[in-house]
Amino acid sequence: MWGTAQCGAAAAQETVKIAFIDPLSGGGAPTGEAGLRHFQYMAEVLNARQKAFRFEVLAYDNKVNPQETVIAAQKGIDAGARVVVQGNGSSAAAALTDFVAKHNERNPDRQVIYINYSAVDPSLTNEKCNYWHFRFDANSDIKMEALTNFIKTRPEIKKVYLINQDYSFGQSVRQQARAMLKTKRPDIQIVGDEVTPLQKVNDFAPYVTKIKASGADSVITGNWAQDINLLLKAAAEAGLQASFYTYYAAGTGGPTVVRQTGLAHRVFEVSQGAANEGDTAAQEFEAAFRARTGIGSTYPRAFNAMNALLTAMQEAGSSEARKVAPKLEQAHLKPHVGSEGYVRPDDHQYFQTMFVHSFGPMEPGMRFDEEGTGWGWKTVGRVETKDTVLPTTCRMDRPS
């Protein structure tokens, strides 16, 4: 039997192995390590919550490389994984979703579910959609829709500089930023638009020099891991007085360099929620997470994904992918932060409440600062779930 079953006096317990595949070395390592801690913590939480399934997380380093990702996935499956989890790098995600589809077709007795918690290239739930792939992060178009809806309310923005990573996700961010700004704020002038090699730039000072020379008052970037941290670090060192509209400034190390810029409430991030949001239960969960892991939660979508996965397995009465997938694609669950969340069966995209935050000194009512900076994330914009829904071109091949 694939996987393990442990027999107790009361009932059998299935061990569900999860192959976590993300960068654990190189420039993306802090981001990957943070993601790993989220899933390891949720495994502990869910194991304590119920006894039917025991979750075990196996960690694999893919170095943000598509080929390494596929090799890691095969290693995980060979070790008994029933679920593969990956998030950082849409090029790696594209390779993984293709691999999982082919593997499941060839190995009906060893099928796996692919949980995508952070790879946001829209193609993954459009032309490259896959029955076995479930995305719990908002895609980059949804994020840009929310971000530009916020930008259009800020008349002080006149000149924008676009800087993004040179791969499918970064290209999508720059294209959608151009298109949406043209529609919503045609008065805004785009004074720069360039891409940089993914996780290979060690000094962004030359790029910041160009941003200053352009006269930009704002920067839009989808950069993540060292590519956002080093960009902000160079901005701080150069005294660049521009606002930053980002996808991932809250990632590991980000708050520290934002604090160094001194730009209070001028660095923004669009996300599914921050530590100072949510009800009492979410706040207590955050406190427990920080006490256990030593970091703040940057991936509330990992919590959503694991909760949805457990519910689907409980409803299926099994951890077998062919039984879990039909339940997971019908998932309706309240997100960790926000009002409503659900998976769309048409493309397996999870929709949830979205927020725009700014980073600045702690204020009354804010419980959590980030990375010991004395600054925290404050909500400045909110988009309800129903207003994040975009159409899909997915034509999903479903198993017979």
Automatic annotation (TrEMBL):
Pfam families: Peripla_BP_6 (PF13458). Residues 15-356 form the Leucine-binding protein domain. Keywords: Amino-acid transport, Signal, Transport. The keyword Transport applies. The keyword Cell membrane does not apply. SUPFAM superfamilies: Periplasmic binding protein-like I. It comes from the Bacteria. PANTHER family: ABC TRANSPORTER SUBSTRATE-BINDING PROTEIN (PTHR30483:SF37), LEUCINE-SPECIFIC-BINDING PROTEIN (PTHR30483). Belongs to the leucine-binding protein family. This is Branched-chain amino acid ABC transporter substrate-binding protein. It comes from Methylobacterium indicum. The lineage of its organism: Bacteria, Pseudomonadati, Pseudomonadota, Alphaproteobacteria, Hyphomicrobiales.
